[in-house]
User: Fold these one by one.
Assistant:
Number 1:
Amino acid sequence: IINAAECEPYLTSDHRVMVEHAEEVCVGVSILRKALGVKSAFIGIENNKPQPIEVMTKMAASFEGLNVLPLKVKYPQGAERNLIYAVTGKKINSKMLPADAGVIVNNVDTVISVKNAVCNNIPLIRRIITVTGDAVVNPQNFCVPTGMCYQELIDAAGGFKSTPEKIISGGPMMGTSLYSTNVPVTKNSSAILALTKDEVAEKPETPCIRCGRCV
């Protein structure tokens, strides 16, 4: 299963990769499918992304055993166990690994990295990073080398319109707040989110999802 749900708000890096590099994604999936000896592969995409679904469906038709599966829009659809259940109907309890149910889950960027490694002899030396938020002048995605400074990325996006109240590495649900932008891009980096206000605090109270905000 290829996790292309991208259920974190604001993040669009997987979206752009699937639209602009659909063939590379499919080649990477085919390499993994052959290496793992599995018959079928599924690319799970939330159905609020019609363009990637259309592009990937057309491209996948040329590859054996590759299927594109639109998924319901809900958080956390991209969580491994949730994704497996949505795609296969198999329930994975806390004591099990996906492999125990005959499933392997990878994300879009991993698939591209596999293709680059096998076909082009290029190691994992780059990441697709979304720089976004209402504090950013020109939100966009960048393909950057690992080790690049976050501040350089922010400058490339035009800098800040005003001083952000919060800067997050990653998405708003699972990301980490930053006290400084002088940190490097790592293999786990996905986004820089800069917000001028706390949108959660201004909205009415909703049922607890155990986000940990209160502590």
Note: The helical segments are 13-20, 22-36, 50-60, 80-88, 108-120, 150-156.
Number 2:
Amino acid sequence: MTIQKVNLKDTLHAIEKLNTIPDKHQWKTTTSKLLKVNLLQMMFNKNKMNWIELGGAQGHTTLILSSIAESVISVDFDDENCKKINDLGMSNVSTKTFDLYNSDFEDYMKINNFDAAFIDAVHDEAHVNIDINNCRNAGVNLFVF
């Protein structure tokens, strides 16, 4: 298996997508474009990874991750959000509907393996600690919040 790096073509593709999605001041439940650009900068020339995204929402960040990842599993509690993400047609993205804070998701993470996690779910210390622990159980070494 050949390990691919995030290259200029991947980054330019992500920037094209970035131009199609709203910024934080336009859509309160998305991450800022600045965060997404910083993510692209951080990942440039690094190995493509298998990502898990906790809190996929409308898929704005998922679009960017799809350009720089080997694969992305986007998790959201809302079936409709997962459907919207699936409808975006990213071939290396799949979705899962889970309540991130129950034992079913904890069990799921114990039997799966991911390189990196993008965590944007419940924004309080207790929930973020649960997210971190679940991701550690799945082998995550790179965290983006």
Note: The longest helix spans residues 125-137.
